[in-house]
Amino acid sequence: MILLRPHVLARLQSSGTGPDTDGATLEPPPAGGHLPSIATSKLLRTSRDAALRTPGLRWTDEDPSGPTRELVGGRETRKMNLYQAVRDAMSHAMMKDDTAVVFGEDVAFGGVFRCTMGLAEEFGQERVFNTPLTEQGIAGFGIGMAAMGHTAIAEIQFADYIFPAFDQIVNEAAKIRYRSGNQFNVGGLTIRTPTMSVGHGGLYHSQSPEGFFLGASGIKIVIPRSPIQAKGLLLAAIRDPNPVIFMEPKILYRSAIEQVPNDDYELPISKAETLIHGSDVTLLSWGTPIYHCETALSMLSSPPPSLANLVPESLRRARVELIDLRTIIPWDVETITESVNRTGRLVIVHEAGPRGSVGAEISAEIQKRCFLKLNAPVKLIAGWDTPVALQFEKFYTPDAIRILDGIMDTLSY
Amino acid sequence: MPASSFYMIRTARRASQIPKFLSLSRTMTTTAPIIPQDRHGHLPSSQSPITTKMHFFNSVMESGKQIPTYRVLDGVGNPIDGAEVPELDKALAVRLYEIMVLLPTLDNILYNVQRQGKISFYMTTHGEEATVVGSAAALAPNDEVLGQYREMGVLLWRGFTLNSVMAQCFGNEEDKATKGRQMPVVSDFGKKNPTLRRSCPQSLLFQNEIISQHFGSTEHHFHTISSPLATQIPQAAGVGYALKRDPERRGKNCAVVYFGEGAASEGDFHAGMLLASTIPSPTLFLARNNGFAISTPSTEQYHGDGIAARGPGYGIDTIRVDGNDVLAVLGAVREARKRCIESGRAVLVEAMTYRVGHHSTSDDSFAYRARAEVEERKKVDNPIVRFRGFLESRGWWTTEEEEGLKTRLKTDALHAFKRADGLKRHELKELFSDVYGGPEPWNISEQRNELSELLRKYGQVWEPWRKELDKFKGKGEELSGK
Predict the structure, then answer these.
(1) Which residues contact B207 (CB under 8 A, 6 or more apart)?
(2) What domain of life does the UniProt record list for this protein's source (chain B) (predicted)?
(3) Closest partner residue to A394 among B15, B21, B464, by Cβ?
(4) pTM for the complete prediction?
(5) Domain count across chain B
């Protein structure tokens, strides 16, 4: 349901096609030295060796009962962006599982974000097909297939347009196992949908609706930050015994590039990943803002000249622990609690507004569990409680400067 | 055209072939219900006659037939024998034509200005001018319109100025329609996205990119457009019901809702039709069936006989009309509006615009059709060329007038464009206004203060913000206090 689909497709594609537009919302200030952006992020694994040593990676062709092996001999990788990694995951899923089908609006020609390029040619139009414009229909159809034990990989063209499917997802997919006394389940259902802002999408192409699903126990929500993560987490989501909503940050489709292992592998659901270890403050995020966090950390330790007098020397050596939550629900409370108990401070960053948000949920839980260890209130850096306004997006979406300010605020509380 | 764009277009068209397994049932013919010859009475509390013959049906038409299309003018603008030309004088006809020509003029100018210095780009005439302008002319200026995104012509017909159009395109300080909150913003688009412009099927791109402004104007009785598709359809039933309850407007106005055939796949379409028929309201449903929604052809949106076939299912008076024939649209929508208001009930008009020469009833005729053939067809079916033929045959239009009009419209549009280009955006504080009416909740106030504080601290030293603030009227100083 995509009034402006090609529009955002256009904008999205512009965000990763040339050096001048890379990381459109993460523009480093030209006068302020070279700050990391998605294109230069150290969080991306750009060598074969680094890719093969991705923490938690489990090759699906090895005996699952054995210990996780770190052996990487004989494994190959290929350079991929995020949409190619998503496509690769679906290809693996369909190759191994004859019941797997991929469907949604415009997926047959490759999808407006190209995530299904060539899949119809590879697997035939009985397995990769267009649906009419009906999100509740897409979700319900997927639920039906999954109830029959098939693997349904559905696409909702934009997360902003998932709401017509809300009833099917919240009242049906989430509750079928429970209401049928575990006779029926729709674990075979995965709903992929592009999410988050690209910097100029406005009200209906920039939302992060993950928070709306928090109350729907029975559903899982996963948001990857990179191509390696997208492939491994999507394969795990497709094979998870529960319905999963897999939200893909659309600005990363082209701009995030890694070496991605060729073989079939999974990354664990409900496990956060600590990307940078630290001891003074825990910085928690997921999806696109992870890269804003990286920029903020660089600005904290070596501020560009224009900001130098705003970043006290005493804070520059602060050691910040950066964690990617990855699974939004059920989230990894253990990892976050352990980290915050060590650092005594927590800053959460997401693009959705603060009311009823995932940040609010985590904040409540952590303040309960870590109350005596906290040296500062949990800080939430989010959008505002307004719709996402097009011309105002640079002041709506939390960027590196707001994260830097929030970290300094929390450190000096 | 660069190779990459060709690839995308061809890919899109290949996808328009119906998968074999999905199309098998198309070999069966459609059949209508058969009226029983013998009398066996009918079901209690129903007029359904009892029959002893087992007969399945899937059409309101007799076997193998499709719902006919109402047309007045032939392909070159001559009235068809027996067709009734709707009442119109020279002034009305010329105004119709001028607004119809203004639409592609705006397209061209917005487009060319964006692309200055870039490679040239293949353009299509998108061909919905007759449907939008013809229907607008059939309505009262204060009938409530709920559009989808291609109905700028309705606003122009009602006197929405070029400056207002451009204000929304730029989202500048004069944009009353959305205060710069809703997309799209043309200037950014053209500069930043040449890649995509080239890689998208243009027939889709154009309406979506240039004409898809999110207009809205209470003054013009035009409800603000929303990006989610089809949401306006059930709302229209409510608008119609409110009109019916209003003693001032009852019997005088109707609600008019526009939507594409793709949007008619949404549940909201069915909900809207159902509500307008069960809770009767003067609501005019206007489906624009142009054969495509993004890459997906209408043959994948429905298996039945278009949108019109659904009207009788809800007991709604229905007509299918040639959407490229402005006089057919004018006549049909006038009559539809009259029925709507007189009966206080819904009416459905399906306008077929076939702008890319696609036969919606054929599975794959389009897939490998030669470009030249498509081009030829477009010329014949072009609603503007067709109506001009009519005007000329009546002696209402000359070549000089044509030249004069084109120059004038171009000059006016260019002038408005340049003017809009020089204006700033709304003040930054508008980010936080209009979330609620009445007293502002604490969270909104606090967040405005938080951003103000951040701007005071970083507004001039954080380059991405400093650059951005320049684009706003007042440079954000109403917040930062500097």
Answers:
(1) B126, B128, B149, B150
(2) Eukaryota
(3) B464
(4) 0.88
(5) 2
